[in-house]
Design goal:
Blueprint (H helix, E strand, L loop, with lengths): L10 E4 L2 E4 L10 H5 L2 E9 L2 E2 L2 H14 L8 H14 L5 E8 L17 E8 L5 H6 L1 E7 L14 H12 L4 E6 L2 E5 L3 E6 L2 E4 L10 H12 L4 E3 L2 E2 H5 L3 E6 L3 E8 L2 E2 L7 H18 L5
This protein binds N-(5'-phosphopyridoxyl)-D-alanine (PDD).
């Protein structure tokens, strides 16, 4: 019997080297490990083309500025690094994860070390499409109190609150936790939130309490360019409970219809016409991106 070859581990990038994932190691004194002192991005790749590259690099720069860490690479260097990693991992549709931490200090001290170099880690994993059943039937979501800090616009690797919030949803048999601060809906544990009401698309405005999602912005752009009325306004729990449609957006999940909120149907309990329209627009935009004509 011929021996079947074990799958090759993916190639990742760590601090200047490309190496197999199982050989990538960082010091226990890395501040990402000790303090969650770092930021990250998740960017889809379609047909070997990074999607919304400039937007992801712009947000990365803002996140790094937000934690007072110099950007270790220029945008051209990031671009070259991503393309190198895409080729090394076979190309096609991938999800790029990158993280930058403040690096390794001489000891465990909360304040910034004097001469630390940021640690840079990038990996490219297969991009798993959202199961068809979620697109066709929608998903369940629950409302949960948002107990995160006051700088949710920074994409930090310090995700314990998001982890606990998402787990609350999973424990309740739901796909996502939609977060509520006081009376205001902010976003999902790992997604942004839209509602459709009377043919209008509504989403909370950007600010310190939510991540400026790249998918959120693309949905806003596609809606504006195609005559779908869109407004960025504060949303309350009542707005969600009375919505015709609710959607979640993220780079890995695109646009997901929520058809059940806290056990009650959203609208008629099925993905709506506005959802089907935005998915058409999103998929045709992706099609152009695959050809390298748009990012
Ligand atoms: N998360 N809000 C939060 C808290 C998120 O973690 C994410 C994405 C989003 C959507 O942002 P974007 O459209 O840029 O992906 C909003 C990524 C996918 C993650 O942590 O894996």
């Amino acid at each position: 019997m011929p021996q079947t070859q074990a799958a090759q581990p993916p190639t990742v990038y760590l601090n200047g080297s490309f190496l197999p994932l199982d050989q990538a190691q960082v010091s226990v004194l890395d501040r990402g490990f000790l303090f969650g002192d770092g930021v990250y991005e998740v960017m889809p790749v379609y047909g070997s083309q990074p999607f919304r590259l400039a937007e992801h690099l712009g947000r990365l720069a803002n996140s790094l500025a937000g934690i007072r860490c110099a950007n270790p690479l220029s945008n051209d260097q990031w671009d070259a690094l991503f393309r190198n990693l895409i080729v090394r991992n076979g190309g096609g549709d991938l999800s790029i994860y990158l993280q930058v931490t403040r690096g390794v200090g001489p000891n465990r001290d909360h304040s910034f070390p004097a001469n630390a170099h940021p640690s840079v880690f990038v990996m490219a994993s297969p991009l798993l499409p959202l199961p068809e059943v979620h697109r066709n039937n929608g998903v369940r979501a629950i409302l949960v109190e948002d107990f995160r800090w006051g700088r949710c616009d920074i994409k930090t690797i310090t995700l314990l609150a998001n982890v606990l919030l998402r787990q609350q949803a999973v424990d309740a048999g739901a796909f996502e936790a939609i977060l509520v601060r006081g009376t205001q809906v902010t976003e999902g544990a790992a997604s942004n939130v839209f509602i459709v009401r009377g043919g209008q698309l509504l989403t909370p405005p950007k600010g310190p309490l939510l991540l400026p999602g790249i998918t959120r912005d693309l949905v806003c752009e596609l809606a504006s360019a195609n005559g779908i009325p869109i407004q960025e306004v504060a949303l309350t729990v009542e707005d969600l409970q009375g919505a015709d449609e609710i959607w979640l957006t993220s780079s890995t999940k695109e646009v997901v219809p929520v058809t059940n909120l806290d056990g009650a149907p959203v609208g008629d309990g099925l993905p709506g016409a506005a959802y089907r329209r935005i998915m058409e627009l999103y998929q045709s935009f992706k099609g152009l991106a695959r050809t390298g004509r748009y990012q």
